[in-house]
Amino acid sequence: MILQMGGKMDKSTLVLILAMSLFTLGIVGVIIRKNLLIMLMSTELMLNGVNLCLVTFAQMNGEMAGAVLVFMSFVVAAAEISLAIPIVLLLYRHKRTLDVSQFNQLQG
Amino acid sequence: MQFIENILGQLDNILLVVFGVFAFVCGLLMLILRDPMRVAMALVMSMISLGVVYGLLGVHFIAAFQILIYVGAVMVFMIYIIMLINDRDTSIKKRYSQFRPFAFILGVVFVVVFYLIFTKTGLITTNELKTFTINNFAKVFMNEYWFHFQLIAVLLMVAVIAAISLLRTPPLDEHQVQNSPNDTSNGGQNG
């Protein structure tokens, strides 16, 4: 079955379907989960999907720019997570929970 | 014999399908699992299989960065925070928010949009995938994108400074707010 799928489907189509489904899973995870950390992890999954898309499109067009952009987005993801983690820590210190439905007050 | 040769001839495609499906299943598990540590492990497995997918696509340096930065740095941060939090959190007992129908609708909309992109528009061409070597990458990166590289370095520096200054602010717990609402000397010293 796998052989038939591999024969029928193009490699790039397969990878793009994977990237788009990862993005969809990530955005659904951000919405339905209650835990702040799991929401953060779902955004990482979305970033992974976008990176995979960028690499595949760069390879399709033979341009190096997409690969360079993926490299930049790795670094930006690292910077983002290094800022998000202290914010999560401060929120946890403040309310003793990571349930996002508890964070419902301004200046709370 | 013919079957084995057939498999060996298409081994890279088979591995691509297997690890792609594995990455997808691990992403699906992230929606289902309850414990944050298990979710983090599912994400790690998803990222590692994505690294394998990058390797099979022929962009080995991105595969290396994927493993080093995502699995090595980002997920270690995540697991460090999971170790710090209380595991009897209310968000672990009730894991789904009240926006489930909205998320379902949004998921369906995304799937339909992606299906239309694949079938109706001419955006997805089936050109042959070109592989990039680290040699090509380094030449383009250091010749054309050196300014972006500098900007990224500045961004990282700013992120480090912001993280340190965030953690140096005093905790805003209740007795402190009640006892001294106008006292700013503590914040002034630390800031």
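The two ends of chain B are 72 Å apart (CA to CA).
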